[in-house]
Structure prediction request, 818 residues.
Amino acid sequence: MAVACGSARSERARSVEGAGELLTRATGGERPPLAVIAREGDPGGAIAVAVTTEGIEPQRGALVAVALAALVERRLALRGIDAVAVGGWNGWRLRATVASAPEASHTIAAIRAALLTPVQTDEPGYAAATQRGAALARRPLTDIALVDVARCTGDAYGLPSAATPTASEVEAWRQAAHGLGRVAIAASGAPEIADAAAGALSRDPPWPRGSPIAAPAWPPASSGAVVYDASSELFPAGARILVTARTASAERAVAAASLLGDPRGPLAARLAALEAPAHLRSVVATAHVDGGCVAVTVELASPSNGTADIATASALSLQEIGVEMADVAAPVDLRRDLSVRASDPRESAQRAAWWSLAGRARGIADGDVRLHLIVGIASPREGAARSSPARDEAVHEEIDRAMLAWHAPVIEARTRVERGQGQMWILLASPCGTQPESTSDAGAGAAVAFAAAAQASQDAPDAQVEPFVTADAIGLFVHGSARPGESPQAHAMRLADVTARALAAESPRLDLVAQTRIRLLLDASSDDARMRSVLAGALAPGHPSWVEPRGTPFGLAAQSDDAIAMRAAAIRAGPLRVAVVANVDQAQADAAVRGVDRWIARRPGELRVCPPGSVLPPAHGGTYALEQPSPSPSEVLVAVPLPADDEPSRTAAVWVAAALDGTDGLLSRALGAVRADASDGAHPPLARAWASTVIGPPRASALVVRVDADDDTLDAAVAQVRVLLDRLRQGAMREEDRARAAHALGDAHADAAFDPRARTVDLWRGATPPHAPPSLEALRSFAAAAVHDDSLVIVAGRPPRAAASSPRTFPPNEPTAK
Prediction:
């Protein structure tokens, strides 16, 4: 018999031990228990009865309970009691409205007589039982493979062996079922109704005992899938996946059902995100005398890859249901809460009666879950051949392969524990970064990351979500503190779900993609971003997002929503790496990794690798003029392209950039020092601001000097930068410059070490301890080899000049001043 599950999401941290029992009233010995739900405001109360037929001629299926329900309902009707009785696979239940205490007493007496009076061949009750049995026969199970599902859900279906019962058979069933140990009664409404019901039960003679309950054997720990032909139920080529999950406690089953049935929950979201989307049709939880059961139904309309798609959805369903069932814990007052929650007093009493019969499987661990998979497949077209042993065997093999694939982790994980930190940090990203992007789609990966971050932030407002976009990584940063009372592992699973759902499972919503494209396009249209885009195009011809990972105005404007959706799909299908910095223990970090990995769809034998890297042409040296809107300041970027994938050169460039940078660096001396001139005195600095850094990934990096200056001094400032770089090429670097660089880099590393975000990024990248500082000779050798005036990339941005002004251009790429 199905029990309403409700929609409340259970907290993982709550314990199921000592689950709250229903309130009961004493009825004296040798009488059924009376559960009581006290409530006010209803126009009347209700009396309900629940009877379990578990183990009574199971080969007759639901016929036993259906016949007995019809018998009792008709007998009560003849006594003037308007009751509704419904039979199912393993029991029946009845409810009747009572308006007063005397009516409650009368109803209890009538129920006792209806249950305990022997069956006569010529009585109307037996005729009603045979009529209901005939109706049941017209609702047969479509396949014997579905018996386990019917047994789980308690739904009433007929079996081939469910012939019309004789009066003696119905009487045997009545004697077996309508006795102590198999019957429970409940009353809901005002206190006087409960008092009257309890008094009526206690005044009646003792009840006979029902037959001992022989519960079905606990299913085996592991069994293969059952495949059946579902052509009569589904559209051609469709498939239906049914999973039943048995638990030792009914509370665990009901609590898990509210999680599994959530339309925004992990199961529904992961199924919908498959290459061949599957749809969660129903989740039904039931309470039994020997534990609980959950039945999940999933459908695929027309899987494009046939049995492979069916196997993938089946394996995913088994994995997700198993995880959720193992992790869930029911609220301690679930039985009472489900009964009280009903808005109708009749439903409230009916739930209370059935929960009074619910028991626990003996000798089975509370966390033990037994899963059973049934797969129905429709023929590809009407009139086509139905299932064959060969096809069924192929499905079995595909499911076995898919299960192996789901059990093998696909995520590359790196973890660290930093006990006592206020937050936990997770970085999930594609290590392919912007490598697949070209000029026409520069910024597609950034659009995916920003849209995913926006979606995750809406779904989980108590987690902090940030896009992570660099040349070597496209992904999400998620961090946050534990909720009050939340366990470390539940905290980890919650953040992992937020991270992986948005990036690794779900396609970005179109409205968020549109908003993201507008935001990135506006950012890319700023003065500084336009300068960087031109520089990126020169340093990485054909692949500007290798240097400017957030994209260029052209690349972002040229993309469609479909193109971004395809980029998101490619990220989901490619390699993914997660870095977890836990703040409690390693078990918390491991839970986060498992939580992320469960969201990643996989196929047997698939290979997750980044696409082959393109051969990058040499940087396009030269001067690039960019007109900035007035009154924007003038600025210039002077870049020294570095050898591709040359780590020693990149390290040396970082040191040279540090020597150039700072208030007392080489650039400050060349551009900012007050210079004396014998003829006209002191001159102001050539530039307002300057900076030096190394940008881009190892395959397309550069040492870049940025200079802001007035338009009339910009040419002179650029000339001074080029002179300075030429002097470095000739060996002008001194030991004091190297020492200053070492101090600046040391301070920067020390500051970064205090930032958990930076530590998480280093963990994701597998950053190694800094190499030994390069010697002065190594820095000079680098400058001599890398700095060539004719290879410099110079990007100059200036506001438009007045028409009367004489044109000015930058000097050619050669030193013009000493």
